[in-house]
Amino acid sequence: MNLWLRLIHLVLAAFGRPRLDPVADASRLSFRVWPHDLDTSLHMNNGRYWTLMDLGRADLMIRSGLWRAIAREGWLPVVSAGKIRFRRELRLFQPFTLETRLVAWSDTSIIMEHRMVTAGRDGAPIVAAIALVRTGLYDRKARAFVTVPRILAAIGQEAVPSPAWTPEVDAFIAAEEALKGAA
């Protein structure tokens, strides 16, 4: 139930927050670790990171206006791959910020980065976890993934080239492609 409450709060709050340009801006959401987020080691459960990252992607879709096209066209948001690196634990009642941004794209795939950032004792930001996900929008009518230029056009933006892929993005995509053949 707690995730539904967070989702409802996110949706209601997103409409009052400034619009985001998904190519240039990052979504930033503030959270706190609650008892229902914990695992038996009394820190945030690894699965909860992924669930909260869903909220970061939802915030980006809502605040960019993309949700309108998704609803109108019947597109389905899909995550096809993800890689996470846990760096610091998040403990009970600890506040943190989830930062979500686009880092690269191809014809029909978008690579997003999620960062869970908390503050150290001196107040300096500490990255508790960082993840890359490969996402896209699936058009059920066309039975194909929507192209990135079409996605951008749906929110009133011109198609722009992807930023240069970093070594991390290259490695992530290479690992994901290798896993496709492992099934």
Question: Explain this structure to me?
Answer:
- The chain has 183 residues and is α+β, with helices and mostly antiparallel strands.
- Strands 1, 2, 3, 4, 5 and 6 form a 6-stranded antiparallel β-sheet that branches.
- Helix 1 runs parallel beside helix 2 (46-64).
- The mean pLDDT is 94.
- The protein is 33% helix and 31% strand.
- It is globular, with a radius of gyration of 17 Å.
- The protein has 5 helices and 6 strands; from the N terminus they run αβααβββββαα.
SSE pattern: HEHHEEEEEHH
The chain-level structural class is alpha+beta
Number of discrete helical segments: 5
Number of distinct beta strands: 6
Helicity, as a percent range: 25-40%
* Chain oligomer state: single chain
What's the end-to-end separation, in Å?
34 Å
Overall geometry comes to globular
Average pLDDT, to the nearest integer? 94
Portion in strands:
25-35%
What Rg, in angstroms, do the CA atoms define?
17 Å
Largest sheet, strands/sense/barrel:
6 strands, antiparallel
